[in-house]
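Contributing new complexes? Match this layout with LIKH6CAM.
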Amino acid sequence: MRPYVILNAAMTLDGKIATQTGSSNISGKEDLERVHELRKECDAIMVGIGTVMADDPRLTVHKIDANPEDNPVRVVVDSKCRTPIDARITNGDAHTVIACANEYKEEFKSSEKFEAFKEKGVKVFFSGDKRVDLSALMSYLHEEGIEKLMLEGGATLNFSMIKAGLIDEIRICIAPMVVGGANAKTFFDGEGFDLMDDAIKLELIDSYSLGKDLILTYKVI
Ligand SMILES: NC(=O)C1=CN([C@@H]2O[C@H](COP(=O)(O)OP(=O)(O)OC[C@H]3O[C@@H](n4cnc5c(N)ncnc54)[C@H](OP(=O)(O)O)[C@@H]3O)[C@@H](O)[C@H]2O)C=CC1
Ligand SMILES: Nc1nc(O)c(N)c(N[C@@H]2O[C@H](COP(=O)(O)O)[C@@H](O)[C@H]2O)n1
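Output block (do not edit by hand):
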């Protein structure tokens, strides 16, 4: 068993979720409010360590009216336990789980970070050899009571999650902007597929304008 997983992101018309220098303010105000409504509906919100390093996100519900208990559990996929001690996702605003790989368990347990996270109440879950086993992580989160999980990127984790068959729904905000840049992160990066026949197939179930943006909702089929 695993949670129902909704991938949400914002991209420019040319598919970029950040510029090549990491600038990523894409959504309009209305879309950010929609995102925070979705955060409020979800039991957990998950990002990759690349996103934590790039953005130092809070991953709380803070752009609409909300109570502390509306904050979803924050999950970081971080094989090598690189999450900084002072990262905002480790503050006391919400529960946090850091998912690491078994290879780094001993090193982590003898580090000052281990004690710091323990004091902050940050949980660390180990799975996989060198890289987090995403299916095992989903099972663990479901056992912990997470039924609905919002995946908020970034590009590498999005691809691994969809390739592993772990995404049920995609909500994408397309902003009317073009930034280009061959090295700018796109909605899905990772190793990609060689053949179009292997592409993950989607079904469009909703589309609407929101402020200046376009919101598309897809089911993964
Ligand atoms: N516009 C938007 O909606 C959003 C934009 N972004 C942007 O995305 C960018 C970050 O994307 P990116 O750099 O790709 O980083 P990600 O956030 O996708 O994190 C990727 C890292 O996760 C770790 N990881 C651990 N296990 C796995 C696994 N099984 N599969 C995949 N990854 C795993 C890897 O590091 P390790 O091996 O060390 O574990 C990997 O390098 C930022 O610029 C951010 O601003 C992010 C979210 C939303
Ligand atoms: N939906 C959406 N639109 C954008 O324009 C974005 N840049 C993002 N980024 C995601 O939100 C995180 C920041 O969250 P906090 O406000 O700090 O809670 C960022 O790290 C991305 O995951 N999303």
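Reviewers usually confirm one structural detail per submission. For this one: Helices lie at 29-41, 49-55, 105-109, 112-120, 134-143, 155-163.
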